[in-house]
From TrEMBL:
Subcellular location, record wording: Membrane
Recorded topology in the membrane: Multi-pass membrane protein
Regions crossing the membrane: 29-51, 71-89, 101-125, 145-164
Name of the protein this chain belongs to: Synaptogyrin-1
Zinc-finger keyword on record: no
Family: Belongs to the synaptogyrin family.
Length: 229
């Protein structure tokens, strides 16, 4: 998941380089591309054969056709914007901006997963109630829009998972502290050295006062005198 050593929010340091192949092979980018393709399929199917003589084939419910098309267009634009953000993510130097981008990814992906669930339920219910189109006109497209609405729920849920994983990674410690450890040129950066221990530490040592006199006056010593009784 990390784009490089010492990165933040799943990507390397700013200016570490952008390799299109490595970016396009990342799991969350692959899911983003699927979101983009599925959105095209949904609004393309409804727009091409979802109507017959200005009548929506989803049980003649204009709102069903408009809702499915609208969600598809929003998902198309949103996934495209997030895809561009993924490509340019390594060039973002501010950790705060990266954090906001990841949070926006989580929020938008969660909203789209929910809206695709609503779209799937809405279109499925409308199609269930609708009469079979004359000569089977647009049946495959109408069913395809429902199917890819269902698939979109899971690909957007996958985007939530990977975005939340990047958010939990946060800022790498190496990215925050690189260049500041062990730098003797900075104030306080020089390593701590202990006080030198040399022979001068023992110079000037003297015995405690009265130690020699106490030895002389001790019993058996040269200065000891036996008391007279």
């Amino acid at each position: 998941m990390n784009g490089g050593v010492g990165g933040a929010y799943g990507a390397g340091k700013a200016g570490s380089g952008t390799d299109p192949i490595s970016i396009l092979t990342k799991p969350h980018v692959i899911l983003r591309l699927l979101c983009w393709v599925f959105s095209i399929v949904v609004f393309g199917c409804i727009g091409s054969e979802g109507w017959m003589k200005d009548k929506c084939l989803y049980n003649n419910d204009i709102n069903a056709c408009n809702f499915g098309t609208g969600i598809g267009v929003i998902a198309f634009l949103g996934s495209l914007a997030l895809l561009v953000t993924d490509i340019m993510f390594n060039n973002i130097s501010s950790i705060k901006v990266r954090r906001r981008a990841v949070i926006a990814d989580i929020a938008f992906s969660a909203a789209m997963a929910f809206m695709w669930f609503v779209t799937f339920c809405y279109l499925s219910d409308s199609w269930r109630k609708a009469p079979y189109p004359k000569h089977g006109y647009g049946v495959n497209n109408l069913r395809g829009a429902i199917a890819f609405s269902f698939f979109s729920i899971f690909v957007w849920a996958g985007c939530i998972f990977f975005a939340f994983t990047r958010y939990r990674q946060g800022a790498d410690t190496a990215f925050m502290t690189s260049g500041f450890e062990g730098d003797a040129s900075m104030p306080g950066g020089a390593p701590y050295t202990s006080y030198p221990d040399g022979p001068e530490m023992n110079e000037g040592y003297q015995e405690p006062p009265f130690s020699s006199s106490q030895k002389d006056m001790a019993p058996g010593g040269p200065g000891f005198q036996q008391p007279a009784y």
